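dumping this here so i dont lose it
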């Protein structure tokens, strides 16, 4: 499994509307994408900070390549309509889960 974190800095005054777009359109679309194992939206709670993260879980590299293309490791995916909410283009990072060590 690969965890993909899409991070966007939202322009002041647009956070509520952008979160609505992400929860009503983007997350349902991710759920319908082959190889996506689910996703969630996180919003910064720091006063004055307008950052959102879309954290999605993917079956494997092949699934991510199918979703984001051959440059999936560095290419964030967004629609042109989403750019009007963002202070600058989003960034993307990837992680793999680390199994917990069992004592003994």
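and the seq i came up w/
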């Amino acid at each position: 499994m690969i965890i993909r974190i899409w991070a966007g800095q939202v322009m002041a005054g647009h956070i509520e509307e952008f979160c609505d777009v992400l929860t009503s359109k983007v997350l349902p679309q991710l759920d319908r994408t082959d190889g996506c194992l689910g996703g969630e939206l996180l919003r910064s709670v720091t006063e004055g900070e307008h950052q959102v993260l879309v954290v999605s879980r993917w079956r494997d590299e092949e699934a991510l390549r199918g979703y984001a293309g051959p440059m999936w490791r560095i290419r964030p995916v967004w629609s042109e309509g989403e750019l009007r909410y963002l202070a600058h283009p989003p960034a993307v990072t990837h992680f793999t889960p680390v199994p917990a060590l069992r004592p003994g």
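The CA atoms of residues 1 and 97 lie 7 Å apart.
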